[in-house]
From TrEMBL:
Its EC number is 2.7.7.-, 2.7.7.108. This is Protein nucleotidyltransferase YdiU. It catalyses: L-threonyl-[protein] + ATP = 3-O-(5'-adenylyl)-L-threonyl-[protein] + diphosphate; L-tyrosyl-[protein] + ATP = O-(5'-adenylyl)-L-tyrosyl-[protein] + diphosphate; L-histidyl-[protein] + UTP = N(tele)-(5'-uridylyl)-L-histidyl-[protein] + diphosphate; L-seryl-[protein] + UTP = O-(5'-uridylyl)-L-seryl-[protein] + diphosphate. Belongs to the SELO family.
Length: 529
């Protein structure tokens, strides 16, 4: 591995310094006990080539444009070279997958490079996804394919610009190597181009990091991790007069994890995002959206929809269940940390904080999406009735809410939202019901006596014009697989300003075309990535 300093970053690797690690280094697959991480270097790839980067993320890290376009940048973020201060490792975690305890999982293809300290002093962990085998790779290859890397790269940044708490993406690098995948697990493996995304977040700690020491009854390790997480990632709690307060501090921390998770999920529901694999190993302790695998975006409003074909049977991770699944995941975390409490009942306050925060955020979303000054109890019912109508009549969620601002509340009609319907017959059949709902909504809006321009602005800031529709991402992927990366750049550009009207870019704010209804990648995704 080559060393050098092309990319100017300063590292302070507290996770490695302050927490116990695995004495063995390298990728030999193994159970790792008594340790929270294992040193392992990325496996170099044949021909690193930068395909795309996030200008915002690079700026935040203090990486200049000239550095980005040097070959050295692609080498570093493909795992072929290290910047001084980088100390690659894989984290050790477990998880509940589809409701069942799965034992040790860990970073099987993610390799953290270190904790970069930005100019403002913020801490940003840099992590390569697809960087080669680690002790946690089990039977898999440690790699990622281009299609899934494009999806992770674009969605991380799209979510950020939508105001949804998320891990970020700095770069997308082609490896010049093929990766063999059986996309639908149907016995048809084929070679696909490989790629690596460099993800960025203040921390990649997950619920599963806490569950594993609990499952192994390693309480000292569990306590060390909780204390470290508070000290490093929740400094405001630590400084809040609870120093050394043990259980009270832990309980305050748990409640904040719960609150942040509620905020995150409420945003998902606001923008129509379906995560697809809400296993506890994919739940960030910081309340960030993590692991952009078989995720999808709601086209026609359907609370029962999941894009994940691996979950087609029970549809555990369907859109409408996300709030309760997140709650269940938090009960797993509560369980995991319960041995640290003389009376674990205190953790119920944290779970209650989840419920309260979700209700609060959801009501805030309702008010903003419907253009109301504040959400009253009756408005929650109004929103529920709308959801039923949208689902029954097969109406596009994004288009409908965006167009709702165009309905004249003095004389409400269906015309401004008519283009959001996928089916003409269903539109005709549901017109009276929608007419009735729009009339009641308009009457409710009039009660607020808010300036129409201000109301419109507020609605537009909650109802995005542009989301990363599944078929749009797939079109960019199809082009990229043919060697044309421009579609990825174009989508990234559009998704940088999702709430703005962007004249000339109307093609990105259309209903899902018919051909995309049942096409792989557009409505169905497996975990094969
Ligand atoms: N190609 C692979 N090689 C090795 N391990 C893998 C691979 N794909 C997934 N895993 C591992 O399988 C487990 C569950 O996979 P999941 O699909 O949730 O994660 P992921 O997409 O790889 O990563 P992340 O959660 O880091 O975004 C994790 O331990 C993950 O590291
Ligand atoms: Mg994962």
């Amino acid at each position: 591995m080559r060393h050098g300093a092309p990319v100017n970053l300063h590292f302070d690797n507290r996770f490695l310094r302050e927490l116990p690690g695995d004495p063995e280094t390298g990728p030999r697959v193994r159970q790792v006990e008594g340790a929270l991480w294992s040193r392992v270097a990325p496996t170099p790839v044949a021909a690193p080539r930068l395909l795309a980067h996030s200008a915002e993320m690079a700026r935040t890290l203090g990486i200049g444009e000239a550095e980005i376009h040097a070959q050295r940048f692609a080498d570093v973020f493909a795992g072929n070279a290290l910047v001084p201060g980088m100390e690659p490792y894989a984290a050790n975690y477990g998880g509940h997958q589809f409701g069942h305890w799965a034992g040790q999982l860990g970073d099987g293809r993610a390799i953290s490079l270190g904790e970069a300290i930005a100019h403002g002093g913020e801490r940003w962990e840099l992590q390569l996804k697809g960087a080669g085998p680690t002790p946690y790779s089990r039977t898999a290859d440690g790699r990622a394919v281009l299609r899934s890397s494009i999806r992770e790269f674009l969605c991380s940044e799209a979510m950020h610009h939508l105001g949804v708490p998320t891990t970020r993406a700095l770069s997308l690098v082609a490896t010049g190597e093929a990766v063999v995948r059986d996309m639908f697990y149907d016995g048809h493996p084929r070679p696909e181009p490989g790629a690596i995304v460099c993800r960025v977040a203040p921390s990649f700690l997950r619920v599963g990091n806490f569950e594993l020491p609990y499952a192994r009854n390693d309480l000292p390790l569990l306590r060390q991790l909780v204390e470290f997480c508070i000290r490093r990632d929740f400094t405001h709690i630590e400084g809040g007069g609870l120093e050394g307060a043990g259980e009270a501090l832990y309980a305050a921390w748990f409640a904040e994890v719960c609150t942040r998770t509620a905020v995150m999920v409420a945003h998902w529901m606001r923008v129509g995002f379906v995560h697809g694999v809400m296993n506890t190993d994919n739940m960030s302790i910081l309340g960030l959206t993590i692991d952009y695998g078989p995720y999808g975006w709601i086209d026609n409003y359907d609370p029962d929809w999941t894009p994940n074909t691996t979950d087609a049977q029970g549809r555990r991770y369907r859109f409408g269940w996300q709030p309760k699944i997140a709650y269940w995941n938090l009960t797993r975390l509560a369980h995991a940390i319960s041995p640290l409490f003389a009376d674990p009942q205190v953790l119920n306050a944290g779970l209650q904080a989840y419920a309260d925060a979700y209700t609060r955020e959801d009501r805030d979303s309702i008010a903003r999406k419907l253009g109301l000054a504040a959400c009253r109890d009756a408005d929650v019912e109004l929103a529920k009735e709308l959801h039923v109508l949208l689902a029954d009549a097969e109406v596009d969620m994004t288009l409908f809410f965006r167009a709702l601002a165009d309905v004249d509340v003095a004389v409400p009609t269906l015309a401004p939202v008519a283009h959001a319907f996928y089916d003409d017959d269903k539109r005709e059949a549901s017109a009276p019901a929608f007419g009735d709902w729009l009339a009641r909504h308009a009457a409710r809006v009039r009660e607020d006596a808010v300036d129409p321009a201000a109301r419109r602005q507020r609605m537009n800031a909650a109802n995005p014009k542009y989301v990363l529709r599944n078929y749009l991402a797939q079109q960019a992927i199809d082009r990229a697989e043919q060697g044309d990366i421009a579609g990825v750049h174009e989508l990234l550009e559009v998704m940088r300003r999702p709430y703005d009207e962007q004249p000339g870019r109307e093609a990105f704010a259309q209903p899902r075309p018919d051909w995309a209804r049942q096409k792989a990648g557009c409505s169905m995704l497996s975990c094969s990535s």
